[in-house]
Amino acid sequence: MREITLSQAVNEAIAEEMRRDPTVFLMGEDVAEAGTPFKVLSGLVEEFGTDRVLDTPISEPGFVGMAVGAAMTGARPIVDLMFGDFIYLVMDQLCNQAAKQHYMSGGKLTVPMVLRTNMGATRRSAAQHSQSLQALVAHIPGVKVAMPSSAYEAKGLMKTAIRDNNPVVIFEDKLMYQDKAPVPEEEYLIPFGEANVKREGSDITFIATSSMVQVAEKAAETLAAEGISAEVIDPRTIVPLDEATLLASVKKTSRAIVIDEGHQSYGVTAEIASRLNEKAFYHLDAPVLRMGAMDVPVPFSPALEDITVPTPEGVAANARKLCAGEMIYAA
Amino acid sequence: MPHDVTMPQLGMAQDAGKIVAWLKAPGDAVAKGDALFEVETDKATMEVEAQAAGYLTGVVASEGDDVPVGQVIARISETAKDDTPAPATPPTPEPASDALPEGKQITMPQLGMAQDSGQMVGWLVELGAQVGPDDLLFEVETDKATMEVPAGARGYLAATLAQAGEDVAVGAPVAILTAEAPANPVARSADDAAKAQALAPAQPEPEAAPAKPAEAPKPAPKALLAEGGRILASPKARRLALEQGLDLSRLVKAGHPQPYHVSDLEVLRAMPEGQTPSTGTAQASRRLTARVKRPELEAFLNWAQGQGVDDTDAALAGLLGQGHVQTLAIERIGHARSFAILRRLSQVAVTEDMPELILRDLRGSFVQNVELGAEDIPVLTLLPKGKGLTLVLECAPEQLSAEAAIALLNTVAGRLEQPLRHLL
Amino acid sequence: MTKTNTEDYLRMYTQMVRIRTFEDNANQLYLSAKMPGLTHMYSGEEAVAVGICEALTDDDRITSTHRGHGHCVAKGAEFKEMFCELLGKAEGYCRGKGGSMHIADQSHGNLGANAIVGGSMGIATGSALRAKLQGSDDVTVCFFGDGATAQGLMYEVMNMAALWNLPVIYACENNGYSEYTKTEEIAAGSITARAEAFGIEAHQVDGQDVLAVNELTQKLVARARKGEGPFFIELMTYRYHGHHVGDINREYYRSKDEEKDWKENRDPIVRFRGYLVEQGIATEDEIEAINAAVEKDATDAVAYAEAAAYPDVSEVDMHVFAA
């Protein structure tokens, strides 16, 4: 199978859907000729013109609000939010407006829009361009949240998102835009709420999102050499969450580490760990561990930044302890 | 049709309003839009207008009354003499003139296992008097006994909330002790106190000190409780131990390091039975033995197989458990299985439920005699004795009465001697 | 073009009376504690909603505000579904899930009331963007109050609407008060100048004169359909009640004399009624017959809504996500 970058995969997904459905359009800061700072959208304006690829002023609440209105009246906008950190700017439009229209109207209004943005630290971008804020959005009922872990997922999830009749936020890992993966040439969709068992194992389950899937896979590789068999599961969407697959795995292995690049406190890892605890408690032979980013603003200095996010070594070290029955936190 | 006049809802967090003044008298003619009455909320005072024309009738709220929002306070009727009864107005609770003092509440103690109230025999201290924690405060009678209850705290008996002869629910307040000498000590009947209690917001009530002769209910035996506190074990290890009848406290006593995980259960399984006494040995126990000279088990098991019951343990469990218990565990050295006992032998099946009776089958062993003491549930041990069997039933007195224990052992022995007869 | 025939005039009058009657009944429901929550009365501002909505078709969209019952009625909604919604009943426009502050009626192009002040400005402008991208000739009217001119979102979307010539009309209902504060204390400079700064054509009109409002709106809607938008209208009006129903002692921010003056001398319904009789368009008897019919319609709808069923509890987690 051919291999393409995550960036190309996103671009292909949007182009295919814009060809298929004339109501789909793209808007955001520097999405047209510039193709975004990460060049993910390069070439789209040439094919679809400035009517369907709209460069906006730097007015995040304004253009996200407009996407909500366009979506409510028959269009399928894809909004590009240049950095995930700007989510804070659009919270009212996303969480008070987009997320609630369908419910508040008793099911009469729908908001089929996609907000694509990014996440991920260790790019030396410091505290306001490095955050992974998926938990903020996932907390709000009415918004779906997808977190592709490779080019394959990026394309399949984007196409599903564009066809979904709800607001969907897609967080892409900005460090993975140039990572290649096999992506079929023929069309495919990845349904929401279906986790992907990336690697099977019997001793411990790693539940990892987006960038952290690679981290978990590397840790599993290391552990395999030591005779510890780790299962790696990528939920792919955190809303909806494929609880059944996660629970089945944890009931099998009796141990789990949940890994996500958002801040650890009150985060995605906490939510998933809590559900495992509630629903698989009597199958657990060790506490479910959370591994998220440290609860500090992302520092600029490489020496500091690199230690704020989970690493394969850290995951493997914790897994060894759990499998040996050692306590990570004193009783 | 008469039009109801209600207390208006005026604010976002308002639930009542006070009627400052009626601007119309009962029987007055009113026009739509006339000011009817003046109302005051926490925020403001305003005049409330009539929403219909007619005559003001059925006025049930007076000036100065606080009325809940939405409550009907009068009507506008077509005639001045509409005398249909006014809508029922729940009376605003009047603050009792003898308001209860603030202080430590003393409650009716729970003295027995199945006791839900106690009768106040009498107060042993005068109202208003000072007491110390050990001073006997009142006398209470339950179905079992009469006893004197100490105050349990220092203070002044500022209120008695139940009087001689009254029944008071366990945990309900019977007195209030104040730190300062009360100016107006209050005496109420339990009935009044209960009403006042219903109106007051719930608050945690410190219980009276336990009465001296109280027969405290014994805590239910907990298999997983070790001496010196809780055993550290994973949820999965605990669940498996429970299912397989393994006692984690034996690992503690053997000095095996905590926390326990599933792998530690192997160690536990490998430990010989009886290496450490079970947690229940301290209990008083009953021990009965019976003898079966010629058990006809072979014939029974062959017959059961003919009925489609291949699992000999299931057949045995069904034979011995039926009519006595709903779940029965068959335990041999190293493993145990529980069975749900149903009416038809062919329906007896393995279960994860906790057994009510353990059948400890030591027929194939060298063990000649057992005296293990009562365990968490009754244990019936089968021991080899020549061509026959010895049956030992051990249990705690509260698990089986003497009669029940004798009946159980006797029936089981009979069934072992003539199993097919039992079935017919 | 001004509407000149009798039928149009009588409909405008009827719609204004319907709004006033709806609000009087809603006020009573609230005061008698039959209506839960929180509500804001539109009484006094009827000529704004009616003058504008009578210039629109069902394909044209509006976005509404927390003070939104008037917009909803003016855009064609039925009393029965509206009262049911206000009382949280299953037959309400939003199955009781939205209530007074979120009432929406998309069958007549009402995209919904919004309880965030200025919160719908993005939605209205986005609706206009969709019309332009899809080549539809519908127009979107964004209703908001003078208080909402203090929100940053307004400037962001007016900028884009002007850049892209979107068919949107920003209708600022200036009722003189931003909640409990005089408008001049929260808004520096001129309101219309805010729009003019983006090159948006802005008008100020007497919001108590339904014909003036309607005439101006018709012209602007026609031009917006041709791609000459956006436009901005400041409608000078007055709210008879407080900010919300419980805002009863208002003298610390406005005098009773001022309220009396607006009610007695500038009431949009009284003024238009006088005009209709004077011009021989309707007799006093005909007007009274309209009023009585509307009153009955409202009384029946309230009775229906009071007796109507609440939604089944199974609906609580329905409509979180669309299929």
Automatic annotation (TrEMBL), chain A:
What this protein needs as a cofactor is: thiamine diphosphate
Do you know which Pfam families this protein is assigned to? Transket_pyr, Transketolase_C
InterPro entries, A to Z: THDP-binding, Transketo_C/PFOR_II, Transketolase-like_Pyr-bd, Transketolase_C
Concerning SMART domains, the annotation shows: Transket_pyr
Keywords in alphabetical order: Oxidoreductase, Thiamine pyrophosphate
Q: Does the keyword NAD apply?
A: no
Q: Where is the Transketolase-like pyrimidine-binding domain?
A: 4-179
The protein's name is Alpha-ketoacid dehydrogenase subunit beta
Automatic annotation (TrEMBL), chain B:
Q: Which Pfam families match?
A: Biotin_lipoyl
Q: Which residues form the Lipoyl-binding domain?
A: 2-77, 103-178
Task: Please name the Gene3D superfamilies in this protein's record.
Answer: 2.40.50.100, E3-binding domain
Q: Output the superkingdom of the source species.
A: Bacteria
The answer on whether this UniProt entry bears the keyword Nucleus reads: no
Q: Which InterPro entries match?
A: 2-oxoA_DH_lipoyl-BS, Biotin_lipoyl, E2/Pdx1, E3-bd_dom_sf, Single_hybrid_motif
What's this protein's name? Pyruvate dehydrogenase
Mark out the compositionally biased spans (Low complexity).
195-214
- What does the UniProt keyword field contain? Lipoyl, Pyruvate
Which prosthetic group or cofactor does it need? (R)-lipoate
Region entry Disordered: which residue ranges?
A: 78-102, 187-219
From TrEMBL, chain C:
Catalytic activity as recorded in UniProt: N(6)-[(R)-lipoyl]-L-lysyl-[protein] + pyruvate + H(+) = N(6)-[(R)-S(8)-acetyldihydrolipoyl]-L-lysyl-[protein] + CO2
Q: Which cofactor does it need?
A: thiamine diphosphate
InterPro entries xrefs = DH_E1 (IPR001017), PDH_E1_Alpha_Subunit (IPR050642), THDP-binding (IPR029061)
Q: Which domain of life is it from?
A: Bacteria
What CDD domains does the entry give? TPP_E1_PDC_ADC_BCADC
Q: Which UniProt keywords apply?
A: Oxidoreductase, Thiamine pyrophosphate
* Keyword Oxidoreductase assigned: yes
Domain Dehydrogenase E1 component residues, every copy = 15-313
Q: What's this protein's function? A: The pyruvate dehydrogenase complex catalyzes the overall conversion of pyruvate to acetyl-CoA and CO(2). It contains multiple copies of three enzymatic components: pyruvate dehydrogenase (E1), dihydrolipoamide acetyltransferase (E2) and lipoamide dehydrogenase (E3).
Q: What is this protein called?
A: Thiamine pyrophosphate-dependent dehydrogenase E1 component subunit alpha
Organism, by scientific name, is: Roseinatronobacter domitianus
